Automatic annotation (TrEMBL), chain A:
The chain crosses the membrane at residues 12-30, 75-95, 104-126, 138-158, 179-204, 238-258. PANTHER family: ABC TRANSPORTER PERMEASE PROTEIN MG189-RELATED, ABC TRANSPORTER PERMEASE PROTEIN MG189-RELATED-RELATED. It comes from Cohnella nanjingensis. CDD domains: TM_PBP2. Residues 69-259 form the ABC transmembrane type-1 domain. InterPro entries: MetI-like, MetI-like_sf. It is a multi-pass membrane protein. Keywords: Cell membrane, Membrane, Transmembrane, Transmembrane helix, Transport. This is Carbohydrate ABC transporter permease. One of its GO terms (biological process) is transmembrane transport. Belongs to the binding-protein-dependent transport system permease family. The keyword Membrane applies. One of its GO terms (cellular component) is plasma membrane. Its main location: membrane.
From TrEMBL, chain B:
It is found in: Cell membrane. Residues 70-284 form the ABC transmembrane type-1 domain. GO terms for biological process: transmembrane transport. Its main location: membrane. InterPro entries: ABC_transporter_permease, MetI-like, MetI-like_sf. PANTHER family: ABC TRANSPORTER PERMEASE PROTEIN (PTHR30193), INNER MEMBRANE ABC TRANSPORTER PERMEASE PROTEIN YCJO (PTHR30193:SF37). It comes from Cohnella nanjingensis. The chain crosses the membrane at residues 12-40, 76-99, 111-130, 157-180, 211-231, 265-285. Pfam families: BPD_transp_1 (PF00528). The keyword Nucleus does not apply. This is Sugar ABC transporter permease.
Length: 274, 297, 436
């Protein structure tokens, strides 16, 4: 009986928290469907009562939301592609090759994890401005291609792969490059998929760096674009703003549906056994 | 034979490492050195920099606003770190009990999905939710007979506002790590404990917590570093206000560097934050030996 | 040995792939840039000029009309527009400084009075006087530009731009709410007590729909206008030290605080909320703003609007801010840039672009455009140009705005009383002014 009560209590608490997590989304979507002049009317819209889709058209008229999303997709996508190769190559070197200075270099890389972004961002800004790269997407992509955490996680995974697989390939006449490309890389796909998902999310949502590196409207990524929608130059009604917010939810939704498997498998598959 | 293999490996090793190493030097190592150098200069990016010695350091000691920012950041750490660590664990424990996989999927989706959405977008919505006179939250509290709370207008409530948002947006991170950590604990251990007659509380404290300690440690280190560097949440929701009440050190660095264009002083402040993070992290690793057990499985 | 050579070849290939990837992402953005700022056209006798002018100020359609007209006289000048995203003036100037620092300096920039000193005193602007003499035809009748509004763009005897738009701060009324409260728009000489009476009468709570009488302008330009009316200001006349610790300034700021906590006629400003929206949706009945809300009124087809001067406190003044298009010194096309800058102050330009977000600065255009304002008391805008005072904006404007807004927020959130906050603000502003 006591067990049963505790169970009910736990279930209740979990459901309350789940409801709390969903409620803002419901409010956002419901309010985005209200007429602009009613957007603030009380009681607030938790469930949609009106279905006025004009706000969605209004968003696209006011700000180039689609362009913002494409910019974000370009930036995050290129970073992920770069990450897949650069991090996995470095991880391969650390995990499966021996060369002088390997451990020292690895330690230095790891300590890079501790350096907070705001220490390096000022010199990076100066450097990129000297290279005429401020206000280009390259300013967001290039520094993000080095990802010590990703290298670390992929290395952990690669170290668990038995040497026999690669040796079999060497006997067949493969070199290190083929060993990497044909044997180790395919076997590391779960962890690379996980770090790619994490990298993509981080840069899709990144606010700080675009805030500093981008100036012109046409290059804006989504997070900064959203502040424009709400900002003084956008000036709109709440319903339209929330229609914009709703649109931004689509990509994460797709991502969750298709990406969560890799994320969870990757973390569970040993990545986090620090 | 052996020798030749290693030489060849060495060559390949550097080649494989080359892109990462190059990027590391250009975008991490060099900036760190430059940052230290800049701390002793005055530089606004447009006109050439000027060596000013310890002027910045002097300003640092007398900067009252900076003291306030460090106090605010400490508040964030003290509120957010325990919140994510404890509530994340409780949710994970609840969602990994013997419930159907459909429920597990439901909880995982509910708690984790906000992590994926664009902060800047949902924070805009949250700042309206928190509106004093017209916001949803105060309306709902009103139904319960609770007076309107000045979420974003009071130096006290503003921290609760950021904490609630932070819970909503980021609890999924800690939650997911805990869930996976818990799932990795072999069931046989629990069964053995049950046979030995251990109570639920005993098996939690003697089995679950020690087995989970590497995950707990990981969550501690990451949430602590995250809270020390907090920027997006106050920037987007409170704007650092009212006044300076919720402005973090990182927001201050942004203001000094990119709004006042005082790159030198901003570098010094950022280095100070770096040293603090380094010290705290080092201490954590030092003490982790006493409670984190890696010799599992 | 063979194997090794092959490995190296493949690895090199991968590296090359990266290099091209990086080049592609750098190049991709560079290409976009090429049409915007390169001067490849110069070789063919075509000059390219880049202007920073936000879409919020001038739409693509308006710009197209403008440039067609401009190219009739100047067929060889190709104009490219860049929009900059920002939060307020200080942030906007900041972004332009970042562009200059980042080696991406435009040729012509839209600058309001708030930024002119900042750019001029840093020696970033090109004096235009010589070009005015050299190309007298480029600039339409200089005398027609309202001299008071033009004056901020003449710094130390050098002309840095030709005034295009201006704005002031007046009271906007939701006339539906006035009617409900049985009030009409007050006369221009209304006082502090009248204002308070209006605000109280307009504060209502009907069927759960709360309406506040007045939304406090919690930003530099708007608050400055009210300070002026109490014989106070943020800075002294020479703009070398702050006057916020003056009793008049403290009194005004305390009045703002009282409007929220004592009289309860104003909402506590939300850092993100939009007053114009609140006025339209009837959540507040009065706001103080310039001409810019008329853009939003027009878009949302909101008609129940009228305006009046701000109420009289110790005195009754009007604040103004004006804007122009200075040329950056670093431009490679100074003549073309000058011609564009001059053209943008022309009657044609003002008539095309200044319908509702801002007020034209040519006396002739003002006479034509202002009567079309959809508000009964539109005359208020026309009359105030002659008596208006410029918003105080020294070189350190960005920092001062930040300090002022921060302490205003402390006051309005009831963290500090006005006297304490304003004394602290003065200390910080003085320190900022002392910096070079």
């Amino acid at each position: 009986m006591k067990r049963y009560g505790a169970r009910l209590l736990t279930d209740g608490a979990l459901l309350v928290v789940a409801a709390f997590m969903f409620a803002p989304f419901l409010w956002i979507i419901s309010t985005s469907l209200r007429l602009p002049q009613n957007s603030f009317d009380l009681p607030p819209a938790i469930l949609p009562t009106t279905f006025n889709f004009d706000n969605y058209g209004e968003v696209f008229k006011r700000v180039p939301l689609l362009a913002f999303m494409l910019n974000s997709l370009k930036v995050a996508g290129l970073i992920v592609i770069g990450h897949v190769f650069i991090s996995s190559m470095a991880a391969y070197a650390f995990a499966r090759l021996s060369f002088p200075g390997k451990n020292a270099i690895f330690l230095i890389f790891l300590s890079g994890l501790m350096i907070p972004g705001q220490v390096t961002i000022i010199p990076q800004f100066i450097l990129l401005s000297k290279l005429d790269l401020v206000d280009t997407h390259a300013a967001l992509i290039l520094p993000a291609l080095i990802n010590p955490f990703g290298i670390f996680l992929i290395r952990q995974m690669m170290m668990t792969i038995s040497p026999s697989y690669e040796e079999a390939a060497f006997i067949d006449g493969a070199g290190r490059v083929r060993g990497y490309l044909n044997v180790i890389l395919p076997m590391s796909v779960p962890v690379i998929a996980m770090t790619s998902v994490m990298t993509f999310i981080a840069h899709w949502n990144d606010f700080f760096r675009p805030l500093i590196f981008l100036n012109t409207a046409e290059k804006m990524t989504l997070p900064i674009g959203m502040t424009v929608l709400n900002g003084q130059f956008g000036a709109g009604n709440l319903s339209a703003i929330l229609a914009g917010v709703t649109i931004t939810l689509i990509v994460p939704m797709l991502f969750y549906i298709f990406g969560q498997k890799y994320l969870i498998e990757g973390i569970a598959g040993g990545g986090l056994k620090v | 034979m052996r020798m030749r293999r290693s030489v060849k490996d060495g060559f390949a090793g550097y080649l494989f490492l080359f892109p990462a190493l190059l990027l590391f030097i250009v975008f991490v190592a060099e900036p760190l050195v430059v940052s230290v150098y800049l701390s002793f200069t005055q530089y606004n990016v447009i006109t050439p920099h000027r060596w000013t010695g310890i002027d910045n350091l002097r300003q640092f000691w007398h900067d009252q606003r900076l003291g306030l920012m460090y106090g605010n950041t400490l508040k964030y750490v003290l509120i957010l770190v325990p919140m994510h660590m404890i509530l994340g664990l409780l949710l994970a424990l609840g969602a990994t009990r013997g419930i159907s996989s459909r429920w597990k999927y439901f909880y995982r989706t509910a708690y984790y999905f906000p992590v994926l959405v664009t902060s800047a977008a949902v924070a805009v919505a949250w700042s309206f939710i928190y509106d004093n006179d017209f916001g949803v939250l105060n309306y709902l509290l009103g139904l319960l007979g609770i007076e309107r709370i000045p979420w974003l207008q009071s130096p006290k409530w503003v921290y609760l506002a950021v904490a609630i948002y932070s819970f909503w947006k980021f609890i999924g991170n800690a939650f997911l790590y805990y869930v996976i950590g818990l799932q990795n604990i072999p069931r046989t251990l629990y069964e053995a404990a049950e046979i030995d007659g251990a109570s639920a509380a005993q098996s939690f404290f003697r089995l679950t917590l020690p087995m989970l300690s590497p995950t707990i440690f990981f969550v501690l280190v990451t949430t602590l570093i995250g809270a020390t560097q907090i920027f997006d949440e106050p920037y987007l929701i409170t704007g650092g206000g009212p006044g300076d009440a919720s402005r973090s050190v990182n927001m201050y660095i942004y203001e000094v560097a990119f709004q006042h264009h005082e790159m030198g002083y901003a570098s010094l402040v950022s280095i100070s934050l770096f040293l603090i993070i380094l010290l705290v992290t080092a201490l954590q690793f030092r003490f982790s030996r006493q409670w984190v057990s890696y010799n599992q499985e | 040995m063979m194997r090794r050579t092959k490995s190296v070849a493949v690895l090199t290939l991968i590296l090359a792939l990266f290099a091209s990837l990086m080049a592609a992402c750098a190049g991709g953005t560079k290409n976009g840039e090429a049409s915007a700022s390169s001067d490849t056209g110069a070789a063919k006798g075509k000059q390219e000029v880049t202007i920073v002018w936000n879409e919020g100020d001038v739409s693509n359609e308006q710009l197209k009309v403008l440039l067609e007209e401009f190219n009739k006289k100047n067929p060889d000048i190709k104009v490219n527009r860049i929009s900059v995203t920002s939060n307020g003036w200080a942030d906007y100037f900041n972004k332009i400084q970042t562009m200059i620092a980042g080696g991406k300096a435009p040729d012509v920039i839209r600058v309001a009075i708030e930024g002119i000193q900042m750019f001029a005193k840093q020696d970033l602007l090109l004096p235009l006087d010589d070009y005015m003499e050299k190309f007298p035809d480029a600039l339409e009748n200089y005398e027609d530009l309202h001299p008071k509004l033009q004056s901020p763009f003449v710094v130390d005897g050098k002309t840095y731009g030709f005034v295009w738009d201006w704005n002031n701060v007046v009271m906007h009324f939701n006339t539906d709410l006035l009617k409900e409260a049985g009030l009409s728009v007050p006369p221009s000489d209304w006082t502090r007590d009248d204002f308070l009476r209006y605000a109280q009468a307009l504060t209502t709570d009907k069927d759960g729909k709360k309406t506040f009488g007045f939304a406090i302008p919690n930003y530099y330009f708007g608050a400055s206008a009210w300070l002026f009316n109490n014989e106070a200001s943020v800075l002294d006349e020479s703009m070398t030290s702050s006057k916020l610790d003056d009793p008049n300034a403290i009194e005004m700021m305390q009045f703002f605080q009282d409007l929220i906590y004592k009289y309860k006629v104003s909402p506590v400003p939300n850092p993100k909320s939009d007053m114009i929206n609140d006025l339209i949706s009837g959540r507040v009945a009065m706001i103080s703003a310039g001409k810019w809300p008329f853009g939003t009124y027009d878009k949302t087809k909101f008609k129940a609007i009228d305006i009046q001067l701000l109420p009289k406190f110790k005195t009754q003044k009007v604040i103004f801010g004006s804007g122009a298009f200075p040329v950056l010194k670093s431009t490679k096309q100074p003549e073309a840039a000058f011609k564009l800058s001059a053209f943008l102050s022309s009657s044609f330009s003002q008539k095309t672009t200044l319908s509702n977000f801002s007020i034209p600065t040519r006396i002739s255009v003002m006479k034509e455009v202002l009567p079309k304002t959809p508000a009964e008391h539109w005359q208020v805008y026309a009359d105030s140009a002659d008596i208006a005072q410029p918003v105080e904006a020294p070189m350190q404007y960005g920092e001062i705005e930040g300090i002022f807004n921060r302490y205003m927020s402390s006051i309005l959130s009831n963290q500090m009383d006005a006297a304490t906050a304003m004394k602290k603000a003065k200390t910080e502003i003085d320190a900022a002014l002392a910096k070079k």
